[in-house]
């Protein structure tokens, strides 16, 4: 890798060079302009990979399950990308790094690429950066990209929105947690996995989920399946992969996938536009003396912040009706 321009690295990455892929991902994670350039070049190659999100409480066995899923996908001849997102850990933190080392040792397979992301303060926002990392792995030819994320906050819900199929992992003994589980997390589940099914109470949790799902208003959406796994031994994982495949088939029926792609594109474009606008506004607040003065007026209670915000927008981004006939 002597030529380290985005164009050269993209070429190497497309040829399967792991160091080139790693370098591009680092650019992306650090919100470097080279990363954007690489993403631009890679974009036309995206859209091939199936994206599977795996979320659930810490310790529920997600990483172990993801390892097993990856092995099973390899058995079925598919190349695999794994993105592990743990927003609570610093990039050098033990757990996440441990996961990465463990997984890479476990596989040593050129058709598996593992990336751990751990930055609360990802510059572009965690969900957006994760989406970009997924796009890179998609573009370089991974057939399936598995994203592991800790299911707690909105950022994680946003991340799994990137997925075609979202798996919510629960474990025996989570009865109360199931009741309290955020409605948002329940709504995003395409499949429920009761992991640690070797422990007592697995059927009980499954029954509770079933009960909860039966209370949900009947809608056009497909009711999620509930499967049991033992990630440590791999029991139930082949069935899980089959269920993921079936969900993919379902998505491909009746153009659901087209709608998904369209929605994902809409989110991406709006998020990028929002970021750019936001950065411009930040700059205006210092670079335009009249804006700076307006801010002082608000601080001194001479102007209210609502009128001030409107004045700034009116000056720089006046409202006009959308162009319908460009
Ligand atoms: N008994 C049992 N333990 C499991 C199973 N799957 C994972 N574990 C263990 O649960 C712990 C947490 O697993 P990990 O994959 O790191 O969970 P994560 O935090 O959700 O990624 C580890 O000690 C695993 O060995 C399972 O099916 N049965
Ligand atoms: Mg984990």
Task: Output mean pLDDT.
Answer: 85
Q: How many strands, which pairing sense, and closed or not: the largest β-sheet?
A: 7 strands, parallel
Number of helices in the DSSP assignment = 14
Q: How much helix, percentage-wise, in residues? A: 40-55%
Classify the beta-strand content into a percent band: 5-15%
Commentary on this structure:
The chain has 326 residues and is of the alpha/beta class. 54% of the residues lie in helices and 12% in strands. The protein is built from 14 helices and 7 strands. The protein has helices at 6-14, 18-29, 33-42, 62-75, 94-107, 126-139, 154-160, 175-180, 183-188, 202-215, 237-252, 256-287, 289-299, 305-316, and strands at 50-56, 80-85, 112-117, 144-150, 165-170, 191-194, 225-228. A 7-stranded parallel beta sheet has the order 3-2-4-1-5-6-7, sandwiched between helices. Helix 10 (202-215) links the parallel strand 6 and strand 7 (225-228). Helix 2 (18-29) crosses helix 3 (33-42) and helix 2 (18-29) runs antiparallel to helix 6. It is globular, with a radius of gyration of 22 Å. The two termini are 44 Å apart. Bound molecules: guanosine-5'-diphosphate and magnesium ion. Guanosine-5'-diphosphate binds at residues 58-64, 195-196, 198-199, 230-232.
Question: Which descriptors would you attach to this protein?
Answer:
alpha/beta, globular, binds guanosine-5'-diphosphate, 326 residues, binds magnesium ion, seven-stranded parallel sheet
